[in-house]
Design goal:
Helix content: 40-55%
Largest sheet: 3 strands, mixed
Radius of gyration: 28 Å
Strand order of the largest sheet: 1-3-2
Structural class: mainly alpha
Length: 217
């Protein structure tokens, strides 16, 4: 059995095998009886098998469709996984951390003096209602996002506002601040979204619940 690249099978000419990086994630087993060793030009050390011309063409017809499909599936799976990882890491985390570190030199938030806990709770509920990614959200997911806003000094959420405003801020008790980033603004659509894509969308319900579980461990 040969565990190696299939030489010259997809490429048009010898030395032009179109091997791609994601080909390492799929495998293909071709078995044949010893009588066909000559057709596969098997060496005595059982390595370096290469089918003869006619057989190679037949195998190419049989395998190319499957290979193309596998490559597409692998690419899609890895893109999905990468997006999930970015969501979990949260591309806004660095900005939030920097803002938290600089908080000592920022002016004191005066609005907190005129806000009650009930008013803060109502404001957070409004922010949650306005934020993206709430369709089909469970109660656990919403509660997890609410706790996140209440426990972080700085938070960033995406919202859908008229295109004239890039962002707005909301101040809460304890000098907490929520930055609402508008996905309809041209700068977001032409610069931020192409660079960050799905990583800037609100976490899915399942991911929010998982984050809440980790937080309470």
């Amino acid at each position: 059995m040969l565990y190696d690249k299939i030489p010259y099978l997809i490429g048009q000419k010898r030395g032009q095998f179109s091997y791609q990086d994601n080909d390492r994630w799929w495998g293909c087993e071709i078995s044949f009886p010893p009588e066909l060793d000559e057709c596969f030009q098997v060496r005595y050390i059982k390595r370096g098998a290469e089918p003869i011309g006619a057989l190679k063409d037949r195998l190419k017809v049989e395998l190319t469709g499957a290979i193309t499909s596998l490559r597409k599936r692998i690419k899609e799976d890895r893109a999905t996984e990468k997006a999930k990882q970015k969501q979990a890491e949260n591309d806004f985390s660095n900005a939030k951390n920097i803002m938290s570190e600089l908080d000592d030199i920022f002016p004191m938030n005066q609005s907190k003096k005129n806000m009650s806990e009930d008013e803060e709770n109502a404001k957070i509920e409004q922010i949650l209602d306005e934020s993206e990614g709430t369709t089909g959200e469970t109660a656990d997911s919403r509660q997890a996002r609410k706790e996140s806003l209440m426990n972080k000094l700085y938070s960033i959420v995406t919202v859908s506002y008229p295109a004239s405003v890039l962002f707005e801020t909301e101040t809460l008790l304890g000098d907490k601040m929520v930055i609402k980033l508008n996905i309809n603004h041209p700068y977001y659509q032409k610069v931020i979204d192409p660079l960050c894509g799905d990583a800037l969308k609100a976490d899915s319900a399942e991911e929010s619940v998982e984050k809440a579980k980790v937080k309470h461990l």
